[in-house]
Amino acid sequence: MLNLALGCLTSFCLTLWIVKHTSRAGSRWLDTDLTGVQKMHAVPVPRVGGVAIMGGTGITFVVGGVFDGNPLGDALLLFGCAAIPFVAGCVEDVTKRVSPRIRLLAAMAGAICAVYGLNAVLGRVDLPIVDRGLALLPVAIGLTVLTVSGLTNAINLIDGMNGLASVSAILIFGSIGYVAHQVGDWLIMSVALTMIGTILGFAVWNYPGAAIFLGDGGAYFIGFLMAELLVLLIARHPNVSAWYAAVVAIYPLFETIFSIYRRKFVRGRPVSEPDGVHLHTLIYRRIALRGADYRDLRQRSRRNARTSPYLWALCAVGVVPASFFWNQPVVLFATDIVFVGAYVWFYACIVRFKTPRFLLGHSSITPPATSQETRR
């Protein structure tokens, strides 16, 4: 528990320092783009929360290594691999000049470093036909790099509403830490606890009101470490089903797959082009904002915070079964099917303006008319 507590404290303090010194750092730290199709905030907010999470993680790894909270060498090696995509994302946060391709290559480079430094290779997916191909090391490395870079970018894709990516990541890391405890893997469990702590220390500044954002650097750092822990868990422990990784992170993974399909095949646009029709965006605009005055910045901020719990519940659809049935591939596969069906149904309902009433909650109540409107 040292790693969790220390990670939370250091991340909280570093985030506080960043929030208090934003005005001195100038506009480079602020996300001043309020008009982008994927932008949901109403005022400029610092976009470098990843600096606090990475700083808190590094400090915790060192102190934890000294006091036997985690294996120091392996933890720092994993930290160094995660620094590669973090730097690419952080530079983009500050300069807005790093292309999606460069950031993707940075995630791939970090994954390759982990392959050779930590032997983090995905040698099985528990599908006999595919597993035969993975017996060839180059094929296994290629799949590992693709998987790690995919999940790294997936966390960035869901980072669109207050608290959405951070709390979803806490849920997933909580499950990873629990399974690691079950199989007795000290490294994975300690890193998972560290990430829960550092993200939690940041999240109190990001939800319900957002005084700071993760930014690309923070999202890539979280996504990369999440992906690597899942690869290590499967590579080190044959009793952990490979389907566990596919289920516990199904929300960000399927959001990415569905977005690629929607952009490329439905709308005929480049995959890397941002849009405003993600599930969390639609929930915000068609459920959370229902009955609100869009011109009122305070209402928009409160409604922003109402959006994330819908997606936390959706994320839990994968996380909870994965945590209890991590060694039962049939149950995990069935969970994947249920999640995909629920996601597509939910998305289709919102797009067609047929959202079930039980999902609308209080946002479905239209504010009473003023006396002036009544006279009219």
TrEMBL record:
GO cellular component, one term: plasma membrane
Top-rank lineage group of the source organism: Bacteria
Pfam family, one: Glycos_transf_4
Cofactor: Mg(2+)
Annotated GO MF terms: metal ion binding; phosphotransferase activity, for other substituted phosphate groups
Keyword Metal-binding: yes
Membrane topology qualifier: Multi-pass membrane protein
Subcellular location(s) per record: Cell membrane
Keywords: Cell membrane, Magnesium, Membrane, Metal-binding, Transferase, Transmembrane, Transmembrane helix
Transmembrane segments: 75-92, 104-122, 134-155, 162-180, 186-205, 217-235, 241-261, 309-326, 332-353
Binding site residues for Mg(2+): N156, D216
A GO biological-process term: lipopolysaccharide biosynthetic process
Protein name: Glycosyl transferase family protein
